[in-house]
Write a structure and sequence with these properties.
The protein is α/β, with parallel strands linked by helices. The protein has 13 helices and 18 strands. It folds into two domains: 41 residues, no CATH class; 311 residues, TIM Barrel (Alpha-Beta Barrel). The strands form four sheets. It has a six-stranded parallel beta sheet. Strand 7, helix 2 and strand 8 form a beta-alpha-beta unit. Helix 7 runs parallel beside helix 8. The protein binds (4S)-2,6-dioxohexahydropyrimidine-4-carboxylic acid and zinc ion (ZN) (2 copies). The site of (4S)-2,6-dioxohexahydropyrimidine-4-carboxylic acid has 9 residues, from loops.
Length: 432
């Protein structure tokens, strides 16, 4: 007899009632009639999606645990329907050495409620070769902090490394050009205007688009696989799409905040809407009709403390917590007919698994990990950051009405969230 049967599931886009058999944390059968199992979880005709994979989170652990830690951050993930997260390396110490990488795996193994991967910092050329053995999901480069000379050295170095599971290594890029960002930031700072709205001008679309062009040309030169994080303008998505057609090994991520918000939110929510790259004007920003050009949605869950966010616009750190708002915001658009379930699966499950080589996740098929999120498309709520599991109790989506929410998250056959309550579980390193 199997461990679990998830009964009366609707697996979109197919519109049939299905029964999913789970054994030892894996999907072992998908049938149209009940399956004998020790335990039955009745899904009651609701929609069963693969557990979501967020390839872009900042858990702040170690070093900045007053902002977030692997426990609170992954509680937020489970609450939001995510069963796998990939953490960014800008912690203290940064995850750019073998030692820091090993230590972070240990921290996450102890604290994480969902499965996890780690991006490696790529700014320590001496360490990169040894780091490769620990299977980083990608090498993360912040182009806004690096000179071209340094960038080329890193591309050169990484292009000679092995990847995970026989694939090439991937470079994830925060694509904003350092010199352009510095030039425009200096200009805005000299104006002595502290209205947060100016932040959109301090890091203009040009900075992103130049960085993406540079990254594309260099990726071609070094025969590298690159992933552009948080592409925020329509032009960026077009550049990436064109490069792909021309044979560049490039993929992209978009975020819910760049998709649903524009720079006027800096006026409404001040620094709580401050993020890098900044929210864009209505004419520059990505639109819902452009999402077919994107490969993934990542939340860029980037929590900070309220006290930090209450500093002036230049001193307040950039970043928005996104794990608990992403899925309800997206499902609201599915309800409105603006996004399809096929897009949700492609952008939040299948492509993140493929791009970052996470075997056994991203699909509801036999042999895959039994990672799911059950969604109730009829349930309405109002986004309230006071209820977040994340330590960052703020959001520029505060007060937004949403329809369609995750009501159950299952990790390798175990319920980790039900009706907003989060349960104990032990996340695993996805490449172990
Ligand atoms: O808004 C951002 N916050 N963009 C980044 O690139 C970094 C991130 C953070 O770590 O807070
Ligand atoms: Zn970034
Ligand atoms: Zn980020």
């Amino acid at each position: 007899m199997l461990d679990i049967c998830l009964s009366n599931c609707k697996i979109v886009p197919e519109n049939m009632t299905r029964y999913v058999g789970v054994n030892n944390g894996k999907i072992v059968s998908i049938k149209s009639s009940p399956i004998a199992a020790e335990k039955t979880i009745d899904i009651d005709g609701k929609i069963l999606l693969p557990g979501l994979i967020d390839a872009h989170v900042h858990m702040r652990d170690p070093g900045f645990t007053y902002k977030e830690d692997f426990r609170t951050g992954t509680k937020a993930a489970a609450a939001g329907g995510f069963t796998t997260v990939i953490d960014m390396p800008n912690t203290k110490p940064p995850t750019n050495t073998v030692r820091a990488f090993r230590d972070k795996i240990k921290i996450a193994e102890r604290k994480s409620l969902v499965d996890f991967g780690l991006h490696a910092g790529a700014d320590e050329p001496k360490e990169i070769r040894e780091l490769a053995k620990l299977k980083p999901s990608s090498y993360k480069i912040f182009m806004d902090l690096l000179d071209d000379d340094h960038l080329m050295n890193l591309f050169d170095e990484i292009s000679n490394l092995p990847g995970i599971n026989g694939s090439k290594p991937i470079v994830s890029l925060h694509a904003e050009d350092k010199e352009i960002v510095n030039r425009y930031t200096q200009m805005e700072m000299s104006e002595e205007n502290l209205n947060p709205i100016i932040y959109a001008n301090a890091r203009p679309p040009l900075a992103e688009e130049v960085a993406i062009s540079k990254a594309i040309l260099m990726a071609n030169e070094y025969d590298l696989k690159i992933h552009i994080c948080h592409a925020s303008t329509k032009k960026s998505l077009n550049q990436i799409k064109r490069a792909k057609v021309d044979g560049c090994n490039i993929t992209s991520e978009i975020t819910p905040h760049h998709m649903f918000l524009d720079s006027s939110y800096l006026d409404r929510y001040g620094n709580f809407a401050k993020t890098n790259p900044p929210l864009r004007s209505r004419s520059d920003k990505i639109k819902l009709i452009d999402i077919y050009k994107a490969d993934t949605i990542g939340t860029d869950h980037a929590p900070h403390s309220i006290a930090e966010k209450e500093e002036n616009i230049w001193n307040a750190p950039p970043g928005i917590p996104g794990l608990e708002t992403a899925l309800p915001l997206i499902l609201t658009q599915v309800n409105r007919g603006k996004i399809s379930f096929a897009d949700v699966k492609r952008l939040l499950c299948e492509n993140p698994a493929e791009i970052f080589n996470i075997k056994n996740k991203g699909y509801i098929t036999e042999g895959m990990d039994a990672d799911f999120v059950v969604v109730d498309m009829k349930r309405e709520t109002i986004i309230n950051p006071d209820n977040f599991y994340s330590k960052a109790h703020y959001s520029p989506f505060k007060g937004e009405k949403v329809k369609g929410i995750p009501i159950m998250t299952i990790l390798r056959g175990k319920i980790v969230m039900e009706e907003a309550e989060v349960f104990e579980s032990q996340g695993k390193y996805v490449y172990s």
